[in-house]
Every structure is written in C-alpha cells, then in structure tokens.
Amino acid sequence: MLKEILEGRALLYAMAVVCGVGILSKLAVWISYRRLTKATENISSSKNTLTRQLKLKFENCYKLNLNVQNVSVFVDKYLQKYKVLGIRVHTMDRILQSAVIITAILGVSACAGAFWQELPAGQIVLYGAVMLLSVLILSLVNCILDIGDKRETAVTNLQDYLENTLTNRLQHEYANEPPKDLMEEKEAQALLKQGKAQTAATSLKIKKSKNPKKPKSDSIDEEEVIREILREFLT
Q1: CA distance 59 to 68
Q2: Is there a single domain that holds both residue 46 and residue 85?
Q3: Number of folded domains in the chain?
Q4: Phi, psi of 94 (to 5 degrees)
Q5: Hey, is 10 helix, strand or coil?
Q6: What would you report as the CA-atom Rg of the chain, rounded to the nearest whole angstrom?
Q7: Is the whole-model pTM more than 0.85?
Q8: Ramachandran angles phi, psi of 87, nearest 5°
Q9: Where among 177, 198, 222 does a domain terminate?
Q10: What is the per-residue pLDDT across 169-179, written as a single tens digit (0 to 9) for each?
Q11: What is the structure's pLDDT at 87?
Q12: In this structure, what are the phi and psi dihedrals at residue 83, rounded to the nearest 5 degrees?
C-alpha cells in the first residue's frame, strides 16, 4: 500500500497542493491589507466596511459620553475582527507557516518511506527536491508579501483620523449638547418622580378633605407631612 502511494507520486501532488494553498492565503491577506491601507487614506469618504463600522462605533461612544481612552487598543480590537473570505485575517496569515510545516513533514515522510521500501534513489531525490523547492517558494512568498508595513500604515492612519480629525469634529458638534440618551433618561426619571409626588400629594389631600373639621394644628402637621413626602420623592 505504501509502496503504491509512493510510486504513484500522490505525496508529490499533496505537497504541491499544500504549497499552492499557502501562497494563495498569503496573497489574499496581502491584497486585503492593501485595500484597507488605501481606504484609511481617506476615511471620511471611504466605503470600506471596517472603517465605516469603526467610525460609527467611535461616534456612538462619544455621544454616550463614553470617551475612548486608548485609541490604539480600540483600533486593534477591530482589526482582530477583520475577515477575508469569511476567515479572520490573522488566522489566514498563519496558513502559510502551517503549509511550510506540512510540506516539510510530507517530504521527509516520503523520503523515509521510499528508502524503507527500497525504491530507486532517483525517487528519493525527487521527493527531497520537491520538498525543498516548496519550502523555498513559501519562504520567498512570505518575505515578498510582507503585510507588517501595510498593517502598521493602516493602524497609524486610523489612529490619526480618530484622535485628530473625528474627535475634534465631535467636540465642536456636541460641545454644548448633552448626550441624547442621557437627556432622555434624566427626563424620564424626573417625570417618574413628579408623577409619584403628585400621586402622594393627591392622596393626602383626599384624606384631608374627608376630615375638614380638624384643628388648625393638625392641618399644619399634614402640610408638613406633604412637604416631607414631596421632598422624599423629588430627591
């Protein structure tokens, strides 16, 4: 069985497929970061999904008076969610390194199996050469398509826009305007307290009207009770 697999060169095809997958994954990551870098050069008019979500989230935090203290962490958090073909970019970027390891394992296993099955020396050399060539190609692709610079450029552009452009614009727009959600919450609380106070006062007035012939001192005491209840509900 093993001899048939080695003679049929199935492991050679497997190494070629793994090498191709590693190259395509790295190329996809590089293209995605290249597009992101271009999008961050003009974020205000960009249609990139990530930059639009990032800007919207930052604006919502500012409007709710939840200031973003560490913008770099805020940006890194969203870059971790950046996906290509439904896979997170940082996960896809590891495929090439995995492809190198898998190719090396397949090549060494093929050479060892061919030697153990006493196949011709040319077969062993072929497996070893394909393994070394695949590892070399993957290493070159990893060096040429370096995404480190592009990611750093995208992060710098995003931080600069959020800290120096968007923050200044939001400060001018909402300088004298309290957050909308907080205003609505305070108004609701005030109305709730006012309604409770009115209900309590009305209840006491009804009780008072049922006993109109109470002495003056009792009337004064009831007024004091009403004031205390109103003070309690409104504070």
Answers
A1: 10
A2: yes
A3: 2
A4: -85, -10
A5: helix
A6: 36
A7: no
A8: -115, 140
A9: 177
A10: 777 766 655 54
A11: 82
A12: -120, 150
